[in-house]
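Throughout our pipeline, every protein is held as a single compact record rather than as scattered files. Such a record has a labelled line for the sequence and another for the backbone structure tokens. The remainder of this section carries one protein's record, kept here as part of the documentation:
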Amino acid sequence: MTRRSFLTLACSVLMLSACGFQLRGQQDYAFKRLYVAGGSAPANARLTRIVQGGSDTVVVNSIANADATLQLSEGRGLSTLTLNSLGVVEEYQINLTLTYSLVGKDGTVLIPSSVIALNRAMTYSDQFSQAKIAEADILYADMESDAVDQLTRRLSIVKSLHPGPGQQVPAVAPMAPLPPPPL
């Protein structure tokens, strides 16, 4: 029986390594002290936890003590996705945009103003309006968590606090409207 469980474990490990699965690992940010300006409290708490837990960078409370300043702003939206034959909303599209930029202590723009845009589809019924409001809050929290994860990967692209010509990080912005979410 132990041989069978060992073989199962070994096969699982081989399949995970073959599919490209890799733990997040340790990040090496160019800045060692980061100040976060703006953003929501849950997003800032998650960002702090990820940055401090996965690197030797510390999130500080004073801009004077920081090597770099991350400026965040968040936008939320709700739009109609589908209507039924009577013109009643059946689905909504929930949108979240996280706009960010990273500036060095000396004013050097390390990451120009960029956008992370996410969306989700949510069915709707007047009969369950209170439950759907709670569902929308859960979806917003999920999108915010995804956006912070993407942001931490984007911060790791910065390799120097004083980039030379051709070493600047380009801005990222959605060029086209977001596609409809999968149903």
